[in-house]
Q: What sequence folds into this?
């Protein structure tokens, strides 16, 4: 039976399954018992929690809403609704506790039954108290409201009755309502007698007024007696009443909850530990038997596989160059696996030599392909830059010339010769600028393909600054921006003039774009010991600190809209950085959001400091 690996695995699986099912069933039984215990404890805790909420809602009603006019006006109470809700929840908890199988083990059956009865009597008593409170009323409601109505009617008689006695009567009435002390009742009766006698003896009152006052006073006394009767029923006077009955049920419930809590604490962990011990013993028996059988079957299965694994490891260490083969006399799955592996080794040795020869050829081809891919990627990147530059730098002058031609087409017959000459001059200037831009772009393209030859020379920076200011003056005038420069005469920069002109024009144009109306753009040249520094500074919108590094990062390609919604590609500064690197110069930026931006381009003095392009 155990010769076949399939049979061996089947027996092992069957053994593990049987023991697994046994452990699972025993675990289900024990943990179901434990869950019932935890559930019972949870239910008793919920019951006690709901009881506390019932008491709290009762207290809130008696201390807040029972003396609130809103309750007597609407007849609705959020605290009474809450009280009723938790009474229902407590009843549901009691029903579930009675159904719990672990109840007998805890020995609290009798206590639960008593709690159920006490809850019923407590709720019944509280409902009676609420009804009496509604009857008693507050301020203008119920019996108290009736009493006040009669009192106000009596007070309407003004000076015709003894105001002193009436005020004393009302004072004792309020003292009693506030303090519920019988001493005020006695004083109230004395004042009532005095006031009643006064009605009869007062000569200023007509017979009909006396009768009406006696009727009002009788109604006042009856309402007060009704309040007194309700207070006695509630137990608000010295006599015992419904409040005492309610408190008695509360005390019994609290005592019962204490007994349940003690029983749960005493028995819960004890019973759970017993169940865990029984379960652990059962699992231990299953585990020992399973371990013995598994150990025996695993040896039958793994020994041939272990031998094969060791042989494969040796062959891997020797790169499959040995002629050694694993011998076996078994005809089962293990034997067939070893025979097939020996055949595989024979084929592997033949194929390894062929693979080694082809691998050498593939490596040479891969190196060529990789080099070609790098060159292609570089050329593609240059193409993208080139077209973006054309879009960036040629759009503005071409748009300007388009505007001139439209004006000439539509209004040429209305223009004076001076205006025509001015338009022609502007168009000529723009065409010259376009030519310069194309020359610069072609030079940049040549630099990317290795065809650019830098011609560094001493450039009169003042004339170059003035030339670019004139070029960009119209753009600045449209936003009323002042262009100022501070350059000492005969100051020279050692650089390629075309590249320097391109960088200067881009930096000034960029400053105008991000400077609001009536702003200022300054161009300075700072003469240093080792280098001359061109500074282009504006008081524009500035740049957020987290975006400054993006200005010269080609991969980020950072671009924003100018203060007049001017659009750009964001490549002008990238070109400035590229040309600065090729000119052995450095370009840096300082900016603060809302305060402006400063660009510094530093060119070294000595020709020997320069590097070839």
A:
């Amino acid at each position: 039976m155990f010769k076949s690996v399939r049979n061996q695995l089947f027996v092992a699986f069957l053994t593990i399954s049987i023991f697994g099912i046994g452990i699972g069933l025993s675990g289900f039984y024990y943990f179901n018992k434990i869950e019932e215990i935890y559930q019972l404890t949870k239910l008793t805790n919920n019951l006690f929690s709901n009881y506390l909420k019932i008491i709290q809602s009762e207290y809130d009603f008696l201390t807040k809403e029972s003396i609130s006019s809103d309750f007597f006006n609407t007849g609705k109470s959020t605290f009474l609704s809450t009280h009723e809700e938790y009474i229902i929840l407590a009843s549901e908890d009691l029903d579930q506790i009675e159904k719990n199988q672990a109840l007998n083990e805890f020995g609290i059956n009798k206590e639960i039954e008593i709690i159920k009865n006490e809850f019923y009597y407590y709720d019944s008593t509280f409902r009676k108290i609420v009804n009496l409170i509604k009857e008693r009323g507050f301020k203008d409601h119920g019996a108290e409201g009736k009493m006040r109505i009669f009192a106000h009617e009596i007070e309407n008689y003004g000076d015709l009755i003894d105001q002193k006695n009436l005020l004393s009567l009302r004072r004792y009435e309020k003292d009693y309502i506030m303090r519920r002390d019988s001493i005020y009742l006695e004083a109230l009766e004395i004042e009532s007698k005095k006031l009643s006698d006064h009605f009869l003896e007062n000569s200023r009152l007509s017979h009909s007024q006396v009768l009406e006052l006696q009727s009002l006073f009788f109604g006042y006394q009856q309402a007060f007696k009704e309040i007194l009767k309700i207070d006695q029923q509630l137990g608000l006077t010295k006599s015992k009443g419904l409040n005492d009955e309610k408190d008695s049920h509360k005390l019994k419930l609290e005592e019962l909850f204490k007994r349940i809590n003690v029983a749960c604490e005493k028995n819960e962990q004890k019973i759970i530990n017993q169940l865990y011990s029984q379960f652990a013993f059962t699992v231990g028996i299953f585990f020992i038997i399973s371990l013995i059988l598994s150990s025996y079957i695993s040896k039958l299965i793994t020994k041939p596989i272990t031998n094969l694994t060791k042989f494969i490891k040796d062959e891997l260490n020797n790169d499959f160059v040995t002629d050694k083969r694993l011998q076996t006399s078994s005809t089962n799955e293990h034997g067939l696996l070893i025979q097939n592996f020996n055949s595989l080794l024979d084929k592997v040795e033949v194929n390894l030599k062929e693979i080694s020869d082809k691998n050498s050829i593939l490596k040479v081809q891969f190196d060529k392909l990789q080099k070609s891919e790098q060159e292609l990627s570089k050329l593609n990147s240059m193409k993208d830059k080139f077209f973006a530059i054309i879009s960036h730098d040629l759009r503005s002058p071409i748009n300007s010339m388009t505007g001139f031609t439209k004006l000439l087409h539509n209004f040429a017959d209305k223009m004076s010769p001076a205006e025509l000459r001015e338009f022609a001059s502007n168009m000529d200037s723009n065409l010259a600028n376009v030519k310069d831009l194309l020359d610069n772009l072609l030079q940049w393209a040549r630099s990317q393909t290795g065809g650019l030859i830098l011609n560094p020379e001493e450039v009169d920076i003042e004339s170059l600054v003035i030339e670019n200011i004139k070029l960009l003056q119209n753009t600045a005038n449209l936003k009323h921006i002042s262009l100022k420069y501070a350059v000492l005469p005969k100051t020279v920069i050692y650089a390629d003039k075309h590249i320097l002109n391109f960088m200067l024009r881009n930096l000034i144009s960029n400053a105008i774009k991000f400077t609001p109306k009536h702003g200022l753009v300054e161009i300075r040249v700072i003469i240093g010991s080792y280098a001359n520094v061109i500074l282009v500074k504006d008081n524009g919108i500035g740049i957020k600190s987290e975006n400054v590094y993006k200005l010269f990062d080609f991969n980020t390609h950072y671009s924003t809209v100018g203060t007049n919604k001017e659009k750009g590609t964001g490549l002008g500064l990238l070109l400035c950085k590229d040309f600065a690197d090729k000119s052995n110069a450095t370009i840096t930026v300082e900016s603060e959001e809302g305060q402006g931006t400063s660009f510094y381009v530093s060119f070294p003095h000595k020709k020997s400091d320069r590097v070839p392009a």
Summary: Residues 333-411 form the longest helix (79 residues).
